[in-house]
Amino acid sequence: MTETNPLIALAAYLLAIVTAALLLRAVPKIARHLEHSGESRYASIDGLRGYLAFGVFVHHSIITWIFLRTGVIDFPPSNFYAQLGQGSVALFFMITGFLFWNRLLTQGRQHDWLAFAVSRLFRLYPLYLPLMLIVFVTVFYQQNWELKEPGIRLLGQILAWLTFDRPDVNQYHQTGMLISNVTWTLGYEVFFYLALPLAAMVFIYRGTWVQVALCLIGIYALYQVVGWEHSLKKHFLASFLGGIGAAYWIRRPQLVAWSQTRMAGIVALLALAIAFTAFNRAFNLRPLLLMSLFFVIVASGNNLFGILKPRSIRWLGEISYSTYLLHGFVLWVLVQRLPPMLELDARDTSTFLTLLAVCSCLLIVISSLTFLYIEQPGINAGKKVLQRLRQDRKADKGLAEKIAR
Fold first, then answer.
1. What is the C-alpha to C-alpha distance for residues 370 and 374, in angstroms, rounded to an integer?
2. From CA 347, how far away is CA 352, in angstroms rounded?
3. CB atoms within 10 A of CB 300
4. Which residues have a Cβ under 8 Å from the Cβ of 223 and sit 6 or more positions away?
5. For 66-105, what is the HEC assignment?
6. Secondary structure element (H or E) that encloses residue 382, with its range
7. Which whole-number Å values give the CA distances from 143 to 86, 157, 159, 172, 192, in the listed order?
8. DSSP string covering 108-160, please?
9. Closest listed residue to residue 276, CA positions, set 294, 255, 260
């Protein structure tokens, strides 16, 4: 059965890696970008991102295959394919928890919260806004440009999508399925970002008991507000703790030394294999503990016998946000909309696998383009905005000092 055969995933991954390798050779701008970025301090995590984002694509591909044949949207029956989605998301949350908590531990009260806020804004939205526009245009195109909602309600839908919620647009049923509903994870990321300074006051800066109490109340209020429409699930948020734990783990030289050994690499791969084959859901205690063990070893610099190190894998990591955000729409167009136009039956196994192969390659090409021409310029624009804000702040401070004299 296609939905349980792991060789399908292996073939898709190989196509993606080969496509990335060919792009590195054919497009000098990509090669220069990797050379300029150099070896990251957490190069193993950079490589891991590429596997995770593409894993979510494979997960949704199998869900699409099941939907085409049964008309039911459901988790794959295979633990492996189910975990390629949920497990990958859990590890993404761990990466977020690790990188930002580790930065807090390193910088302490010197942490630049303005830079943090600007960088997150210009990291999430430059690609998300064009995708959102594509969704709205697609909906109206599908409905022959007919407005079925009052203007005020449509405005509410736009605002909801701007905050990463996914209400149906203009009465188009299950609008979020156009992009495989991937934006649900961004709500959790945003909650983590907003709660981070409050959590820092409680656990790192260690303010007065009044400050701690107010911060805890603030975290709870954010939990309610961010999850206003769809409650944030505590067991999903728990996966961030795996990354936070890793930030403390790498501060123990003995643990880091062990984590970089061959034995640790074997332990990490074994833990991941058990988590991805013995469990159908990722956000439960046992699979989360197994994935946390895997992650702390990777965060310590273990490249898992070289599989996280190749340039092609590093490039997949660079474009992972594009891959994650865009894959649902690519799947919808190529697997659900295109076949009827070409008089193909996507329910046929050979046809579906051919389309999946095309999607695997095309997704990497599209993601590479959107990274180079949307994401990277967005990141650079954020740096310029931050520089301007700092200059304005410096000028205001200077003016205040003159007035005080």
1. 5
2. 6
3. 22
4. 191, 195, 232
5. HHHHHCCCCCCCCHHHHHHHHHHHHHHHHHHHHHHHHHHH
6. helix 376-404
7. 33, 17, 21, 8, 37
8. GGG--HHHHHHHHHHHHHHHHHHHHHHHHHHHHHHTTT---S-HHHHHHHHHH
9. 294
- Both tokens of 177, joined, read 């399925």
Please name the residues in contact with 269: beta carbons below 8 A apart, sequence gap of 6 or more: 294, 304
Contact present, 162 and 132 (Cβ < 8 Å): yes
Encoded amino acid at 395, one letter: A
* 3-state DSSP of 205-235: CCCCHHHHHHHHHHHHHHHHHHCCCCCCCHH
pLDDT in tens, the chain (405 residues): 667 899 999 999 999 999 999 999 999 999 888 877 655 668 899 999 999 999 999 999 999 999 999 988 888 999 999 999 999 999 999 999 999 999 999 999 899 999 999 999 999 999 999 999 999 999 999 999 999 999 999 999 999 999 999 999 999 999 999 999 999 999 999 999 999 999 999 999 888 889 999 999 999 999 988 876 567 888 899 999 999 999 999 999 999 999 999 999 999 999 999 999 999 999 999 999 999 999 999 999 999 999 999 999 999 999 999 999 999 999 999 999 999 999 999 999 999 999 999 999 999 999 999 999 999 999 999 999 999 998 877 766 665 666 666
CB 332 within 8 A of CB 177: yes
Question: Could you tell me which of 284, 329, 65 has the C-alpha nearest to residue 182?
Answer: 329
Distance CA(119)–CA(387), nearest Å, equals 12
H-type alpha helices, 250-375? 253-259, 262-277, 285-299, 311-318, 320-331, 338-341, 349-370
Q: How many CB atoms lie within 10 A of CB 316?
A: 28
Sketch the domain layout of the chain as residue ranges: 2-404
And the tokens for 398? 């200077």
CA gap 267, 151 in Å, rounded:
56
H/E run at residue 106: helix 79-107
CA geometry: angle 268, 270, 276, nearest 5 deg: 100
Q: What tokens appear for 165 in the block?
A: 């919620």
Encoded tokens for 157: 């839908």
In this structure, which amino acid lies at residue 40?
S
